[in-house]
Specification:
By secondary structure, this protein is α+β, with helices and mostly antiparallel strands. The protein folds into 2 domains: 66 residues, no CATH class; 126 residues, Tetrahydropterin Synthase, Chain A. The chain is 39% helix and 29% strand. It contains 6 helices and 10 strands. Strands 3-2-5 form a 3-stranded antiparallel β-sheet, with helices on one face. Helix 3 packs across helix 6.
């Protein structure tokens, strides 16, 4: 009888140790999380850092970065409106603003990078196709005198109507209409070359 109580007590201590070990977790600054139970989200997103508790063994914690992340696209050759081909290499900064929606719609940061690539590459391609080469390579804030003095011919210099910065902003606006359904916010989009 004494041995049975001893094994029962050891078993209870082991179960309590597992409950404490697996039940508590730490959410660090710069992280956000979603609790899943058998693969399905339970409750709301957890956005504040600190020591948290979940049901041991049954529930799992899915961690997501709260910081600004960088998407770096591959260079693509795209035709402009004036039928000139140009290599466009884009980069964007983004973050996860709704971890629950992000988990349900996308799942992982790697899949989000692929999704952002599809969205941004398509948007860039559409806007580059609608603009002439001069609009894409020049910024609209260059003074016309500066452009004329560098080329040495006033006939060749026409001030850009849109400009590179405005096209970049248009890409951001167009892509930002799509990304909220995935729990993602685009911070900015830039052309590297």
């Amino acid at each position: 009888m004494n041995n049975i109580l001893r094994f029962l007590l050891i078993g209870l201590i082991a179960v309590a140790a597992v409950a404490v070990w697996d039940g508590f977790y730490v959410l660090r600054e710069g992280q956000q999380a979603v609790i899943t139970q058998f693969g399905r989200p339970v409750g709301q997103s957890i956005l504040t850092a600190g020591l948290k508790f979940k049901l041991p063994v049954i529930q799992k914690v899915q961690y997501f970065d709260k910081r600004i992340l960088v998407w770096d696209g591959d260079p693509n050759q795209i035709p402009t409106n004036d039928k000139t081909f140009i290599y466009m290499d884009n980069t964007a900064r983004w973050r996860i603003v709704d971890p629950l929606r992000f988990l349900q719609a996308v799942g992982t940061e790697r899949r989000a990078m692929t999704l952002l690539g599809d969205i941004l590459d398509g948007t860039v391609r559409d806007l580059v196709n609608k603009n002439d080469l001069i609009e894409i390579i020049r910024s609209s804030d260059w003074p016309p005198d500066f452009m004329a003095s560098t080329i040495q011919s006033r006939d060749l210099v026409a001030p850009p109507k849109v400009g590179r910065d405005r096209i970049s902003h248009m890409v951001l606006e167009a892509a930002s209409k799509i990304t909220p359904q995935y729990g993602i916010e685009l911070m900015d989009v830039m052309f590297k070359r």
